[in-house]
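Sample A.
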Amino acid sequence: MPAAAQHRRTRNTRLARALAAACTGAAVLALPLIGATAASAATTAAPAVGTTPAGYPDNLDGWIRESLAIMAEKKIPGTYNGIYRNIIRESSGNPAAINLWDSNAAKGIPSKGLLQVIDPTFTTYHVAGTSFDIYDPVANITAACNYAAHRYGSIDNVFSAY
């Protein structure tokens, strides 16, 4: 396109765009502050987290802490961080997780629960005093940690699928 036919922006147009952008940015920054002031006036209670029969919060943190208490009684080694790291890798914290595609699943024994334990391993390493349900978070964690202790010394020594 010839130079004479190109549209030229004038100084006023550039200045107007710069001011519009600056005002829009200021509005975007101010809105959360205005909203925060109005929201702080409302007092709504957060939904209560249930508890396990042992009195721990019925969430990932509580399940790990309850498992650690049982593990301490049974002298099964492991730490919060080691358990948490493996749970996040294996199931992303979903106690109902099931793997229907790996080699175990192909043999008809899919990995299940927070730490993706297969039924024979769960049965062999089940810890007395926990549920016999492989999907029970505390039973799953405790059995998996018992297995890891026998096989690797501790769940803390597990850094990949086990």
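Sample B, a different protein:
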Amino acid sequence: MRFRFLPTTAIAAMALLGGCAGAGDIAGTDYAPEYDYSEFYAVTNNKTFRVIVSGNPFPDMSQQEMERRLLPVMQANKPQPNLTFTYAVPVEEPRPDYRLVLVFNAATDLTAARVCANQIRHKPVPARPFDLFAVYCRNDLALSQSTAWTPATGPDDPRVGQLFSRLFIVLFDPFRRPRPHPFPFMVF
């Protein structure tokens, strides 16, 4: 009698997971100890948030065309704060300089620290169609990073929007808080 709803529950769970299967994969997520979602929220809510794009996952499309078509897809799948993504470079470099760096077809040994220091390298030949290394930077510090990929055929492919929606939740995790000091009452 207890297991009467088990087949229905299993079918519903498989249908939910099956809907996400074509969206791609997200892996290799890491956060710096300094990462704090409340900081991200404070610097982006009702403000613009700069995105730097390096590389082009769609070789049959110009870099400018790809970026123009990708920006509304990112905006439609943005994280929680009321932010506006922009490619515009500020006249004067802000301090601290918060930004999201998207590296398509990143070199295998490229680190988040190098991405934030603007030392970006790419693979000579792309391994997958939409292979992305995303890094959230504050100045030269990588606050969070993740890799993602999808078999998308263009910026307007629904799988790109689904991937960004999931990627932003991981990259800007609202449930991750700064690590507390292990000995809060000790003076060093």
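Observation for Sample B: The mean pLDDT is 86.
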